[in-house]
Amino acid sequence: MITTFLTLTFIFLIFLWIVSWINYYNKLDNRLGNSIWRWSYDYPVLGKRDISFLDDKKFVILRRKKNKIITYMYFIVFLGFLVLMSFVSQILLIIQN
After folding, report:
1. Which phi-psi region, left, alpha or beta, contains residue 33 (left: φ > 0; alpha: ψ -120 to 50)?
2. C-alpha 3: how far from its chain's center?
3. pLDDT in tens, 30-86
4. Angle at 11 between CA 7 and CA 15, to 5 degrees
5. In whole angstroms, what is the distance from residue 46 CA to residue 90 CA?
6. How far is the C-alpha of 63 from the C-alpha of 29, rounded, in Å?
């Protein structure tokens, strides 16, 4: 039970670290938006059409980096949910006995 709690704490610290990276990428360009949970291509970019790699290379590379970090964040949230369920089940087993 102690190792599960330590694992859950470690996963939470990794989650906070990833969220700080997402906030950092959001501050680099206003076109990325301020959302932490959404990939940057889920909503339209300012302008008539989406920006391609040929139009604005730096922005597209930054958008891809942010999207990769958001994917890592979703993986950490899912892994944290599994560890949390394991922790809760261990607590319930202790209460039952």
Report:
1. left
2. 24
3. 878 788 887 766 555 555 556 666 667 888 888 888 989 999 999 999 999 999 999
4. 170
5. 49
6. 9
Contact 34, 26 (CB under 8 A): yes
Calpha distance 61→47 (Å, rounded): 18
The token pair that represents 16 in the structure block: 């906070």
Residue 38, both tokens: 């959404």
Q: Is 47 left (phi over 0), alpha (psi -120 to 50) or beta?
A: left
Rounded CA gap, 60 and 58, in Å?
Answer: 6
Q: Note the pTM of the prediction, 2 decimals.
A: 0.81
Whether the CB-CB separation of 59 and 29 falls below 8 Å is answered with yes
Token code pair at residue 91: 């607590």
Look up residue 91 and give its amino acid. I
